[in-house]
Specification:
Elements lengths: L4 E7 L16 E2 L2 E2 L2 H9 L4 E6 L3 H7 L6 E4 L6 H8 L9 E6 L7 H14 L3 E7 L8 E5 L2 E6 L6 H4 L3 E10 H7 L16 H8 L4 E5 L12 H21 L3 E2 L5 E3 L4 E2 L4 E2 L3 E4 L3 E2 L4 E2 L4 E3 L2 E2 L4 E2 L4 E3 L2 E2 L4 E2 L4 E2 L4 E2 L4 E13 L4 E13 L3
Parallel strand pairs: 1-4, 1-6, 4-5, 7-11, 12-15, 13-16, 14-17, 15-18, 16-19, 17-20, 18-21, 19-22, 20-23, 21-24, 22-25, 23-26, 24-27, 25-27, 26-27, 27-28
Antiparallel strand pairs: 2-3, 6-10, 7-10, 8-9
The structure holds uridine-diphosphate-N-acetylglucosamine and magnesium ion.
């Protein structure tokens, strides 16, 4: 028997409203493709096996995540969320444990919420637990129809009566299932609904008919459940995540004069007592040490900057390594392969590329140093 915890992430949809040549789940949020976040949340919450259902531009998605330890499942025709989960069954043969279902376009959901809901699902011995949220404007979402703690069914907006549309408790599209029940019940889904699709949401009524426990857990912070359908929502989600990243950094000892204008990817590390001025961007695999000053307009990409650096206004640093106590700029350009051993000064309008500068070596202004080695001092 194959028990334990497994997750399925749905990401086969087209994402029409993004108006993009790229698949929706590859659009970045704070430097990482959207799909990275639900995968990470499921992993952090202890779901060992993860299957991702892809369809539209499947190859682009699987290529972008080639290093990721997940099972890829292709849903060639998008016949609905119920059908998508059924496709994933083949990647989890014989699995009879607890199954988490996430959507690839819900990037803000945190692992600790999943852990709490998993605990609840187990304590209640539920067959289906739906994560729900109270929405002031529930338009477009499936509505939760309850009989006290038992969720009787989920009704899609397009199939709902006027009374049902007034219900504010909505289906977030995230669930925990008893895998054995759901994989067998999915085979009986019908498409007799307004959209002619296999609705995963119909599993709830099926479980009720089979005499099972179905539960709904309200998520207090509904922004975590936000789904990305267009580029406005993408920007909103990025703003939420950016604030989260900046908050964590400030709590760990990094100063930001105006955190609303500081753009740090979720992959970046920064040491304590470093000060970030307004309009700083730190991207990719960047590590900044402690006691650094990073002035306005500085952009750092995939670089390591050791303790005590002063990066002055308007400097750009790409794929470079800076030892301790370097002074850069204003308006300096360090291009890939620049290595500053330590205590270096690179002044205004200096450009370096594949240049190694020994300890204390300086270049104060208006210089190009490329494919070069410069000795100490
Ligand atoms: C779904 C829920 C709705 C819920 C809402 C939350 C159903 C029937 N409805 O509606 O109750 O309130 O999510 O956001 O499930 N997908 C596939 N293959 C498919 C269809 C969809 O992989 O054949 C994926 C999409 O890429 C997306 C997710 O499943 O990531 C949800 O699909 P979507 O079409 O957005 O469902 P909604 O209509 O929003
Ligand atoms: Mg949707």
């Amino acid at each position: 028997m194959n028990t334990g915890l497994a997750a399925v992430i749905l990401a086969a949809g087209k994402g029409t409203r993004m108006k993009s040549a790229a698949p929706k789940v590859l659009h970045p949020i704070c430097g990482q493709p959207m799909l990275r976040y639900p995968i990470a949340a499921a992993q952090q919450a202890g779901f060992e096996q993860i299957a991702v259902v892809v369809g539209h531009q499947a190859e682009m998605v699987t290529q972008a995540f080639s290093g990721e330890k997940v099972h890829w499942v292709e849903q060639t025709e998008q016949l609905g969320t119920g059908h998508a989960l059924l496709c994933a069954a083949e990647a989890l043969p014989g699995f009879t444990g607890t199954l988490l279902l996430l959507c690839g376009d819900v990037p803000l959901l945190q692992a600790d919420i999943l852990e709490q809901v998993l605990q609840y699902h187990k304590n209640e011995k539920a067959t289906v637990t739906v994560l729900t949220a109270e929405m002031q404007d529930p338009t477009g979402y499936g509505r939760i129809i309850r009989n006290q703690e038992q969720v009787m069914k989920i009704v899609e907006e397009k199939d709902a009566t006027e009374d049902q549309r007034r219900i504010n408790e909505i289906n977030t599209g995230t669930y925990l299932f008893d895998a054995e029940f759901v994989f067998s019940a999915l085979k009986n889904l019908k498409t007799d609904n307004a959209q002619g699709e296999y609705y995963l949401t119909d599993i709830v009524a099926a479980a009720v008919s089979a005499g099972k426990k179905t539960r709904g857990v309200g998520i207090p912070d509904a922004t975590q459940m936000m789904g990305i359908n267009d580029r406005r929502q993408l920007a909103e989600a990025e703003a939420v995540m950016r604030w989260h990243i900046n908050s964590e950094l400030m709590l760990s000892g990094v100063s930001m004069i105006d955190p609303t204008t500081v753009y740090v990817d979720s992959t970046v590390e920064i040491g304590p007592d470093t000060v970030l001025h307004p309009n700083v961007q730190l991207h990719g695999a960047t590590k900044i040490g402690s006691n650094c000053i990073i002035e306005t307009g500085v952009v750092v990409v995939d670089s390591t900057v050791a303790d005590g650096a002063h990066l002055k206004a308007g400097s750009a640093i790409e794929e470079s390594q800076l030892g301790p106590d370097c002074k850069i700029g204003p308006m300096a350009h360090l291009r890939p392969g620049t290595v500053l051993v330590g205590s270096n000064k690179i002044g205004n309008f200096v450009e370096t590329k594949k240049a190694v500068m020994g300890e204390g070596a300086q270049s104060s202004h208006l210089t190009y140093i490329g494919d070069a080695e410069v000795g100490k001092n």
